[in-house]
């Protein structure tokens, strides 16, 4: 059942303009240029942002766990995410289709717009926020070189901050407007460079801290907090899995460019458990060093650079933070909404146009972040949306592996003809909607109901699991129909 599709199967015979454009069409193997290195850099860029570093460093300090246990939890989370993305990435390697097309098989050719648009809203919001955070690195650079300006502000941002924000916003548009190959080159350049600078920063801190570093590490590794135990261990695993969750669902947006499944799996192995372990080790050493050098453990790299007060370090660090944050923005928050918006109106919105819409809306999110959005609890709303999206993971995976048995009919994924395999009821799979609704109520309650807040870290995993279980229960006795419909055309 898992044989490779024929080349002719990837040529869509009947073009339905409401479901098809060149950016959504199956990408043939000869047009794929990504390998394990590119997938590795997707993950490098995903974790090496300012937020990713702060998260990794703070996990060693927040849970009262022995540092070795924290490292083990972080590595286990990397293994879990690797397993999850190998499942969602595989169908797109096989068929060359992005996430919003892949999800048509389970949700219906029209119903696919629901998960696609929810994912797009989350992506657009964080695209704006991360654009603001990347601009703080540029502002750090401009201030170090030219001073702070006249001190006037508009919407909470100084003149330097506004200039930096517009520079970053335009820079990102310039990259994506040149297409996926240019994005690939940027990620391939940014990922290794950020690593090199982080290693240098670690060595500098290590040399300055000298013989006091190891005792400082051992205090972090002793872990005497009250929270410890299995609960804290699992909470760290859940937190790290949730950090990657946005990319887990739509990983097919990247694997459609990969030549073979083996290269995808190798990229995921290097990019997740091994990469996360090494990055967390760097975060641990630098955090322990700041304890020695400054008398307190600093988890924000920008604070560390400010304290060190060295112009060359500030320049290099600012460029690195900028590259890292733009990298995660392109991976987690730009490519997904661009495809998701293209899926909504394929005849009118291309991948580039979807990206431009993303950038324009995100401009206002980023510009209003300090003065409005961060003040009114909107991140809670977006986290709730992220929890709502979780059941789609279980639905997609169960549908592809257990219901469709790893076989999709490409022609019918692009067909809205009544009675076609993925048309269901007016283009919507009502059973999938029921499974999603029931599971989403639970995953959402872990964000909104105080009594369930202790489950917040695992809300995504539980929501994904429930989505898959409910979907399987509802679809099991109807699985014959779609499979029969696809095989008639072969």
UniProtKB/TrEMBL annotation:
<dbReference type="InterPro" id="IPR001248">
    <property type="entry name" value="Pur-cyt_permease"/>
</dbReference>
<keyword id="KW-1133">Transmembrane helix</keyword>
<protein>
    <submittedName>
        <fullName>NCS1 family nucleobase:cation symporter-1</fullName>
    </submittedName>
</protein>
<dbReference type="InterPro" id="IPR045225">
    <property type="entry name" value="Uracil/uridine/allantoin_perm"/>
</dbReference>
<feature type="transmembrane region" description="Helical">
    <location>
        <begin position="272"/>
        <end position="295"/>
    </location>
</feature>
<feature type="transmembrane region" description="Helical">
    <location>
        <begin position="68"/>
        <end position="87"/>
    </location>
</feature>
<feature type="transmembrane region" description="Helical">
    <location>
        <begin position="315"/>
        <end position="335"/>
    </location>
</feature>
<feature type="transmembrane region" description="Helical">
    <location>
        <begin position="384"/>
        <end position="403"/>
    </location>
</feature>
<feature type="transmembrane region" description="Helical">
    <location>
        <begin position="189"/>
        <end position="209"/>
    </location>
</feature>
<keyword id="KW-0812">Transmembrane</keyword>
<feature type="transmembrane region" description="Helical">
    <location>
        <begin position="124"/>
        <end position="148"/>
    </location>
</feature>
<dbReference type="Pfam" id="PF02133">
    <property type="entry name" value="Transp_cyt_pur"/>
</dbReference>
<feature type="transmembrane region" description="Helical">
    <location>
        <begin position="458"/>
        <end position="474"/>
    </location>
</feature>
<feature type="transmembrane region" description="Helical">
    <location>
        <begin position="154"/>
        <end position="177"/>
    </location>
</feature>
<feature type="transmembrane region" description="Helical">
    <location>
        <begin position="432"/>
        <end position="452"/>
    </location>
</feature>
<comment type="similarity">
    <text>Belongs to the purine-cytosine permease (2.A.39) family.</text>
</comment>
<keyword id="KW-0472">Membrane</keyword>
<feature type="transmembrane region" description="Helical">
    <location>
        <begin position="229"/>
        <end position="251"/>
    </location>
</feature>
<feature type="transmembrane region" description="Helical">
    <location>
        <begin position="356"/>
        <end position="378"/>
    </location>
</feature>
């Amino acid at each position: 059942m898992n044989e490779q599709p024929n080349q002719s199967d990837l040529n869509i015979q009947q073009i339905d303009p409401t479901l098809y454009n060149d950016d959504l069409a199956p990408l043939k193997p000869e047009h794929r240029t990504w390998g394990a290195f590119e997938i590795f850099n997707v993950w490098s860029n995903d974790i090496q942002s300012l937020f990713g570093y702060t998260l990794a460093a703070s996990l060693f300090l927040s849970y009262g766990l022995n540092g070795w246990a924290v490292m083990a939890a972080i590595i286990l989370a990397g293994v879990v995410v690797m397993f999850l993305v190998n499942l969602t990435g595989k169908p797109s390697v096989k068929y060359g289709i992005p996430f919003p097309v892949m999800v048509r098989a389970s949700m219906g050719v029209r119903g696919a717009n629901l998960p696609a648009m929810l994912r797009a809203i989350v992506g657009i919001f964080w695209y704006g926020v991360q654009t603001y955070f990347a601009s703080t690195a540029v502002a750090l650079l401009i201030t170090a070189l030219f001073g702070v300006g006249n001190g006037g502000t508009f919407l909470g941002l100084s003149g330097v901050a506004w200039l930096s924000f517009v520079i970053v916003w335009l820079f990102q548009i310039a990259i994506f407007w040149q297409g996926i190959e240019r994005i690939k080159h940027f990620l391939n350049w940014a990922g290794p460079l950020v690593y090199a600078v982080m290693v240098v920063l670690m060595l500098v801190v290590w040399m300055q801290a000298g013989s006091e570093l190891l005792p400082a590490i051992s205090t972090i590794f002793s872990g005497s907090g009250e929270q410890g135990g299995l609960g804290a261990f699992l909470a760290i695993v859940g937190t790290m899995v949730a950090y990657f969750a946005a990319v887990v669902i739509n990983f097919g947006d990247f694997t459609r460019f990969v030549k073979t499944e083996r290269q995808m799996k190798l990229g995921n192995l290097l990019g997740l458990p091994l990469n996360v372990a090494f990055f967390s080790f760097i975060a641990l050493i630098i955090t322990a060093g700041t304890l020695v050098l400054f008398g307190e453990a600093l988890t924000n790299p920008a604070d560390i650079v400010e304290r060190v007060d060295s112009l060359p370090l500030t320049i290099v660090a600012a460029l690195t933070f900028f590259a890292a944050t733009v990298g995660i923005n392109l991976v987690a928050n730009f490519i997904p909404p661009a495809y998701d918006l293209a899926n909504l109106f394929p005849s009118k919105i291309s991948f580039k146009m979807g990206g431009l819409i993303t950038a324009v809306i995100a401009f206002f999110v980023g510009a209003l972040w300090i003065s409005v959005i961060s003040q009114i609890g909107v991140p809670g709303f977006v986290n709730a949306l992220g929890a709502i999206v979780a059941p789609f993971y279980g639905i997609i995976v169960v549908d592809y592996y257990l219901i469709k048995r790893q076989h999709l009919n490409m022609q019918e994924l692009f067909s809205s003809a009544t009675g076609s395999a993925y048309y269901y009821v007016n283009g919507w799979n009502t059973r999938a909607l029921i499974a999603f609704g029931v599971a989403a109520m639970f995953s959402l309650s872990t964000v909104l109901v105080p009594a369930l807040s202790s489950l917040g870290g695992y809300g995504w995993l539980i929501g994904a699991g429930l989505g898959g279980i409910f979907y399987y229960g509802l679809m099991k006795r109807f699985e014959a129909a779609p499979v029969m419909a696809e095989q008639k055309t072969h």
